[in-house]
Design goal:
The complex is a heterodimer.
Chain A: E1 5-10, H1 14-24, E2 33-37, H2 46-53, E3 58-61, E4 72-75, E5 81-84, E6 90-93, H3 105-116, E7 120-124, H4 133-141, E8 145-149, H5 158-166, E9 171-173, H6 175-189
Parallel strand pairs in A: 1-2, 1-7, 2-4, 3-4, 7-8, 8-9
Antiparallel strand pairs in A: 5-6
Chain B: H1 9-16, H2 18-28, H3 39-53, E1 59-64, H4 70-81, E2 88-94, H5 97-105, E3 107-109, H6 110-122, E4 133-136, E5 139-142, H7 144-147, E6 150-154, E7 166-171, H8 180-193, E8 194-202, E9 217-221, E10 226-229
Parallel strand pairs in B: 1-2, 1-7, 2-6, 7-8
Antiparallel strand pairs in B: 3-5, 4-5, 8-10, 9-10
The chains are: A alpha/beta, B alpha/beta.
Chain lengths: 190, 231
Amino acid sequence: MEYDAIVIGVSSGGMTALKFIFSALPADFSLPIITVQHISANSDNEWIKLLNKKSNLTIKEADEKEKIETGNVYIAPSNYHLLIESDKTFSLTIDEYVNFARPSIDVLFESAADAYKNKLIGVVLTGSNNDGAKGIKRIKELGGMAIIQDPETAESSTMPESAIAAVQPDYIFSLEKIVQLLIKITQTIK
Amino acid sequence: MSGLEDVSQIQSKVLNDETFAYELLQDLSITVTEMFRDKDFYKSLRENVIPILKTYPFIKIWHAGCATGEEAYSMAIILQEEGLYDRATIYATDFNQHALNRAKEGIISNATIKQYTANYQLSGGKESFSDYYTSSYGNVIMNQSLKKNIVWANHNLVIDSVFAEVHLILCRNVLIYFDINLQNKVQKLFYESLINGGILCLGSKEGLCFTDFFEKYTELDKKQRIFKKKY
């Protein structure tokens, strides 16, 4: 089974989790990663630059109509929903909050599932709400893979628990094991 | 809506019923907006744009795609605070008549006004925000003094043309919904509507670099996407 992209959804506790994952992935990691981290509408997105310094990959804010490319980690800008179009480019919208969030994980996941079908890996990490549950369900329905952080190891367990309640996940793992798994999956692609 | 059973029934109704087609279009259009959305943009507006506006004896401002009017009211507040309101006309346009009617009323729910107050303060507002509205029955209504120089008008960016020569155009988070061809078309309209040296404000994720008009402006504030038309 081959994959074309990874989407990650994370809320409270996300800064630590993302730093862990992105600093552990190698420079030749062969799948693009698109991430929604819940963040204040007034964030100036400086944290993305800090995260970039800790990583071998290029971590950047997703731009309107930007083409998704391997070797990049894209982060949804604050106060916009991030969607993926069928031509694998980004769309930003200012539509209503979904699950009290903008960007919303469900919005990214559902549009990504429609764009990538069974070539998509969805990852739900720490968080204290239920955003991402519907989205991960959609990913599974279209044949993609669902990876969920083990709630026992998550800073906030509610979001992984809600995702586990919504789907039959392929893996329930700690962050360390998620990283190992992603590297293994991409190596078999090569 | 409309008692249709499934999505495929929309097709024949759209083709045969002009009123329905129009109503559907209005329903599909995005009217989400906020007062003082993006604090850094409004700070920059006060610092970099207002001083330029002050040099003109009268000021014409166009809010293109104003939806329910929150940004036009935000502008009216800033103009009042900067002593410019009485020589300004704000054209606030949208193709969604329902949204325009709501904008004209200027009624906002109490729940959202709390957030707008925070936005206002974060964006450099120094007055008491509650002075700009009257509260009753769980809603607030914006002051008449903010409304008197706002002209609300139905205008479709895609099919309608230049209607005035203006000093400042704000069109924020509208063009993200347009493809590049449509963006070019709208940018042409903006370019032709601005005076030389006029100012164009786009949303924080929008730009000119993929359009034909990038060379025709200078960047007044690159990060906040504020552009000045070259002479």
